[in-house]
């Protein structure tokens, strides 16, 4: 069943009844029965009266957080970690054992690792970094990663009495689901999406490949049999319902901490000075990767078409990909070196780069599977006051662009589509910047603001 901000779910057969003002609970509970229910960890009771955690000391609840990403990867750091930090403080009986797979591109020095351990401890998070393996013989290396994860999860089950396991995305989710069944753990899949279909649509995997078949099967099985799932779009909620999934299903998209992700005037000035661009020169930003499940050469094609409409444009590209590779993509399509800049940024400085721009681009192709995706980029752009371009059928980003007048929608990245939507982009660029930023930020908070979704995270973790 779906959870929306400010709404509680009920289990099958339970009659909703109002207990506290504004809350519909899964049983007819009054404040006294909230206290009586705390021993059974009624999630509505605990969310309604957080002080019960202090009034009735309880045994620690040990939960494994299984993430097939690096600790410093923005996909984790700017996403699931925000929720873990919140529930770690709100539910102090939680003990969150975080397993990550550390990649070279996000490598931390020993002192940085020590600092992470100290920072996490404040939220009752205990970090267990493993090493990520990739390259040749990928399936063998993924199997090795899985075996290492299984060993660590088993130790946490036996010696720390872990009772639940949480995953980020469906690749780590498939691993975590198998472990949950092996060791009798409750399983919560955060950000459930059909990643195998993304890879198939983008022609990274073929329909007959072992990687596609294996992940697609595990996605379906975990989607049907998980204890709890949360997903970013109404499209995925409806699909899970049509499957007859046994999981409790919540709508919980990739969220943006609106308190940190906002327009920074000083950041705009600093970045523009750094790349040598005057304040009045329009800057179009692309923030993200190239290739795979994103557009590659098509991004340069789009930029070239925009230059034909307005030659004074400047393109700021912030990407974890190698600078030489990105520069070659741009110059091979005829862009001159003085028309663009390529850099990368630590996550904490991303708002500065967004603030330096006047318009943003989301390079997710328009394929059928993309409506189930929940990329965080649009939320970050909007909360920093930046209008954007997106393909039709990507998450609910296309709907938001039109509903709030904060972006334009294309069917694909092509010269013809660039020319078609250019008048809309030009109008957004010409608008009063202050008014545009206010409207974009309001849309971003309404669409992906973190605060409105925190009660859902509290409710989910109270059940684990």
From TrEMBL:
Pfam families: Glycos_transf_1. One of its GO terms (molecular function) is glycosyltransferase activity. Residues 268-438 form the Glycosyl transferase family domain. Keywords: Transferase. SUPFAM superfamilies: UDP-Glycosyltransferase/glycogen phosphorylase. This is Glycosyltransferase. InterPro entries: Glyco_trans_1.
